[in-house]
Amino acid sequence: MAGDHELKLDLYWHPTVKEAEPLIVWIHGGAWRGGDKAEPLAALRMLRLGYAVASINYRLSSEATFPAQIYDCKAAIRWLRSRSSDYRLDPERFGVWGPSAGGHLAALLATAGNVDELEVTWA
Q1: Contact at 8 Å (CB) between 94 and 80?
Q2: CA 53, 5, 123, 64: dihedral to nearest 10 degrees?
Q3: pLDDT in tens, the chain (123 residues)
Q4: How does DSSP assign the chain, residue by residue?
Q5: d(CA 71, CA 66)
């Protein structure tokens, strides 16, 4: 939850694998004001190559102003890492990918790891 907004993700993985899989986190595009996690078609092709895929939602610009979107993406990754053993995900091999606004958020995730202003924790 981010305030009153419930954050969700869809996880696609191979439940019968023995070894932990790398994960691709798909962040949808939509010019910050549209799109949805239900559109991960490009990323789903990676399933057959041995990757798990998580498609995440974030609050759109009509719901919250920046930097709420990066907070939401970081929260999703923290949640996935905390549950990595449940889904046999390798928490050391997470990548992020997305088009348009999703690509922007992926780039921010890659460069904002130690930026205190872009970190938030919810009780």
Answers
A1: yes
A2: 100
A3: 566 678 899 999 999 999 999 999 999 999 999 999 998 888 999 999 999 999 999 999 999 999 999 999 999 999 999 999 999 999 999 999 999 999 999 999 999 877 777 777 553
A4: -BTTBPP-EEEE--TT-SSPEEEEEEE--STTTS--TT--HHHHGGGGGT-EEEEE----TTT--TTHHHHHHHHHHHHHHHTTTTTTEEEEEEEEE-STHHHHHHHHHHH-TT-GGG-----
A5: 9
